[in-house]
Write a sequence for this structure.
């Protein structure tokens, strides 16, 4: 079973997204051989009230819950996030969060961010954090949002050792404590492969050696990206078949229960 932990529904204000509704995304998944995907709202990244995007995704997922799982976009600096989290978890069945600190104008070190993570963890939810959403070299001139730094994630892990994290759309982990065996960090996080290199310096193989295959997961970023490149990275990876199966779906199934 192939499970993608990094997919989206909705709109992006600065470019047209295709395959960005549930039916079209499922068609894209079928062509790539992906069985299940965790989806969040791309629109919610820019909505003043991100809960509106969560509501849109919940509507889209009706009748597709066997293949699509919702991850809620929650802004902990927005008044009323506690009720938004409750609705997403209990009414919409969201199994995780997506956090966008630099888009939503807060820091991962803020106390209310820790409050959100603690509340989500108490509900058994996964916390996913995309380090970037788009390549800054291709950004719109009105958009100036820096990537989340590895150091921000390192301190977040140390403060929230009971939570479960998924770090998405990142690169260069082996140059930080996050990607080293001697990083002295809690092991409560996994890393998505969407930007990792599987050739040349081959960061993907290095992460498997340093952290183990159970700490790496499939995350394509569709429909911002097509899923086939992420799948190809696993296909060409010089690793046992058991490790590849863990990356493609076993680790995600364990996280999602």
């Amino acid at each position: 079973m192939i499970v993608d932990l990094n997919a989206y529904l909705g709109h992006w204000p600065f470019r047209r997204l295709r395959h960005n509704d549930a039916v079209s995304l499922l068609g894209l998944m079928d062509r790539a051989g992906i069985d299940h995907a965790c989806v969040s709202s791309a629109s919610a990244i820019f909505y003043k009230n991100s809960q509106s995007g969560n509501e849109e995704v919940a509507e889209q997922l009706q009748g597709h819950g066997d293949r699509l799982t919702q991850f809620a976009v929650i802004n902990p600096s927005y008044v009323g996030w506690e009720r938004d989290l409750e609705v997403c978890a209990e009414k919409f069945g969201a199994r995780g969060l997506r956090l966008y600190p630099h888009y939503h104008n807060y820091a991962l070190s803020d106390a209310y961010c820790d409050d959100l993570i603690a509340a989500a963890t108490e509900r058994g939810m996964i916390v996913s954090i995309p380090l970037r959403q788009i390549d800054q070299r291709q950004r719109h001139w009105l958009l100036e949002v820096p990537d989340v730094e590895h150091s921000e994630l390192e301190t977040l892990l140390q403060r929230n050792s009971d939570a479960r994290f998924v770090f998405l759309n990142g690169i260069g982990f082996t140059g930080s404590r996050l990607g080293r065996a001697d990083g002295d960090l809690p092991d409560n996080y996994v890393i998505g492969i969407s930007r990792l290199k599987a050739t040349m310096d081959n960061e993907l193989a290095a992460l498997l050696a340093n952290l183990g295959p159970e700490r790496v997961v499939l995350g394509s970023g569709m429909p911002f990206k097509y899923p086939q490149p992420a799948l190809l990275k696993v296909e060409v990876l010089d690793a046992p078949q058991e490790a590849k199966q863990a990356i493609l779906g076993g680790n995600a199934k364990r996280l999602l229960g």
Notes: The chain has a mean pLDDT of 95. Residues 3-256 form a domain with the TIM Barrel fold (CATH 3.20.20.140). The chain has one domain: 3-256. Helices lie at 22-32, 51-60, 81-91, 111-122, 150-159, 203-211, 228-236, 241-256.
